[in-house]
Write a structure and sequence with these properties.
Chain lengths: 180, 168
Amino acid sequence: MPATEIKLLEELQNKSTQEQAFRKLIREYKERLYWHIRKMVISHDDADDVLQNTFIKIYRNISSFKGESKLYSWMYRIATNEAITFINKRAKESQVDVSELIASRAENLKADTYFDGDDIQLKLQKAIAILPQKQQLVFNMKYFDEMKYQDMAEILDTSVGALKASYHHAVKKIEKFLTE
Amino acid sequence: MKNGILNNRNLKESVFKTPEDYFESVEASVFDKLVTEKFPEKDGFTTPQSYFDTVEQSIFEKTVSKKGKVIRLNSFFVKRFLPVAAAASLLILVLLNYNRKQLTFETLATSDIENWIDQGLVEVDPYQLAEVYSDVDLNPDYQTNDDEIIEYLDGTDIEGLIIETQQQ
């Protein structure tokens, strides 16, 4: 774990400094976590809900975090799980598959107030939306977030080799979709 | 002599290592880089103006600020339980203060007890009442709808209720 993270973690796990440290944590990571969540759930309002739930969960569990992974990886994993739980819940409420839910959200992006992409960006989002969930995650984390495979492996608990393969399959499918 | 050292085969072996299966994945990695160069760089998603300024405070209010907040018991449940439980429990208080020969359970009217409560002549601790009459059913006339319950819960800090209960 980087030295800055170690120091922040100590402050988070100390009652006298926890409040200030948590403010710092939110300030430092809110945008990165938001955009990661947003790419998964697509809607801003839903991303807002999931982001806040993520930080609530982080706050409630920070005392028991043992530092076995990087702090950021741990937070990222919580965000990922919260987003997946949210999507699954919405899919169940709508009585559709998760893949159908995400695909339909992508289809409606053009009318979304908080999407200002051009045609090719819209098409890319539709291409991503029809990938299997794991490939969506890997593609977004690698392509947009420019995350290293080693960090992704820690977050997703998957081998680097499997992640590379997943990314490669995702790129091929997206390329095919964009050139159709 | 110098050439002898350089001819040592061990020196020619590479000391550098690669990750497992690296060369198998190089071709795919190069392909991916070339293909994604044609993809748009941005995803097109935006946020409301000043969103990131306000979300920090929202999160803080739901976490650090919320901790240790004590809430007052809303009178909603107190009003519902009180008339049912008060009548019977008050008998205990009344019997302790009145001549038992003059006053009996049968002669003491429930309406008298309720009047005493309404006039504030008797203080009743709702927790004591609830403990004594834990099996008392809610008056079936007290029907609550979902809106009332949601309105009550919105105005109530559940955590504070729990803290207050634990402090009793």
